[in-house]
Design goal:
heterodimer; A: about 210 residues; alpha/beta; Rossmann fold; 2 domains; globular; B: two-stranded parallel ribbon; 5 helices
């Protein structure tokens, strides 16, 4: 695995090699701890929440993956699971919950509505919660079966295990750049995103 | 029955629909509620209809039920599109009309005269795009998605609660002193001017 500080020509006993090995060891320990004790903060707004509850219950039982404790308080949570469609009226609520969660934190967007707005392409609904909070894993489905959510959780584990403590960029807090609420310069946003809201004329930065 | 009150009555499929002139709505409702033998003591719902035919007037619909007589009646008031969209509030007769009329106001923009607290109830108070259930309202709203997200994130949900709503949530004791004073004086949070569409 490539790490910051690791050079390509690692040979013999160079100091870089030892540093990189040490960093790998620390990352392995920290990431395994984090990935195997994720505390979910459920944000259930619709039918996806029913599937979420099924995932938490005995048949599927995501406690097997270290999610034993559901944190109904954002202060003690690691992963925000948005299960269900998000109306604009709840947008500031989920944003505040996300802001209240301590770093490191991750977000799973569960279901079609949370990921894209789904069938609710109307005046009241947020077209994908990634317009409000950054999302790590999208779980498709309407609603996704518990197996789907478990797969998403395992993907998140994989992602966490690929992170590095020594890469400060990955886990910095994002504050809005201006009063428009953008967290990246508009040019960057237009470059990395596509038109959204089932329309070819609307861009995220506009 | 008070003469001249009834404009038109339809009885069909066991349902009774009565059209009432809008000036005399309150009178008719009081008659239905308070006259022995009528006893429509329960206001089930208030809603409104706008038809696709632009010539047809909007209708405000009241569903009444008599709990003692086990009878239902539906009262309709027609509002011409060209006129001012306003009817008298029936809050003085049924206090349950409070939120029902607020919802009709929120979704259709129909004003209820004499309502104690006519504010939006489903959409937020600073919502500036119009009235969502009107036929001339575009499904996706009037603003761009990005603008909608920006406005939604700049909401201050706590800023617009009344003291009454906060005491329902038992949050009154947790309020900062200045906020409690402000709410006690009946002042709400600062509602920013909506941006020009």
């Amino acid at each position: 695995m490539k790490r910051v500080g690791e050079t390509t020509e690692v040979s013999g006993q160079s100091p870089n090699y030892l540093v990189a090995k040490f960093q790998d060891l620390v990352d392995w320990a920290v990431n395994s701890s984090r990935a195997n004790s994720l505390w979910p903060m459920p944000f259930g707004t619709a039918c996806c929440a029913i599937e979420f509850m099924a995932t938490a219950a005995s048949r599927f039982d995501f406690a097997r993956f270290g999610m034993e404790r559901q944190a109904f308080s954002p202060r003690q949570a690691d992963v925000l699971i948005c299960a269900g469609r998000l109306p604009f009226k709840l947008a500031p609520v989920i944003r505040r919950i996300y802001d209240q969660m301590p770093q490191p934190k991750w977000v799973i967007s569960m279901g079609a509505c949370a990921s894209t707005g789904g069938i609710f392409d109307n005046y009241a609904m947020v077209q994908g919660i990634d317009t409000i909070v950054p999302v790590d894993v999208y779980v498709p489905g309407c609603p996704p079966r518990p197996e789907g959510l478990l797969y998403g959780i395992l993907l998140l584990h994989k992602k966490i295990k690929g992170e590095s403590l020594f890469d400060a960029v990955k886990r910095r807090d994002e504050q809005p750049l201006d009063d428009k609420g953008l967290r990246l310069p508009p040019e960057t946003i237009d470059e990395i995103s596509e038109p959204f809201g089932n329309s070819v004329h609307q861009f995220r930065s506009s | 029955m008070i003469p001249g009150l009834l404009r038109e009555a339809v009885a069909r499929d066991g349902e009774t629909i009565v059209y009432v002139a809008r000036e005399r709505l309150l009178e008719a409702m009081r008659y239905l509620k308070e006259t022995p033998g009528q006893d429509y003591d329960y206001l089930v719902d208030v809603t409104a209809v706008e038809f696709r035919d632009r010539e047809r007037p909007l209708e405000v619909v009241y569903f009444l039920r008599s709990l003692t007589r086990k009878a239902d009646i539906r009262i309709k008031v027609e509002l011409q599109q060209s006129d001012e969209l306003a009817v008298d509030s029936v809050y003085s007769l049924w206090h349950g009309a409070d939120w029902l009329e607020r919802e009709v106001f929120d979704m259709f923009g129909i004003t209820f005269r004499g309502h104690p607290d006519l504010r939006r109830i489903l959409m937020w108070e600073t919502y500036a795009e119009g009235y969502p259930l009107r036929k001339n309202f575009p499904l996706r709203g009037r603003f761009s998605r990005a603008e909608q997200v920006r406005q939604a994130l700049n909401l201050n949900p706590e800023g617009h609660y009344s003291l009454e709503e906060l005491s329902i949530a038992e949050a009154e004791g947790d309020l900062p002193d200045d906020m409690r004073d402000r709410l006690r004086r009946g002042e709400r949070g600062v509602i920013p001017d909506p941006p020009a569409p």
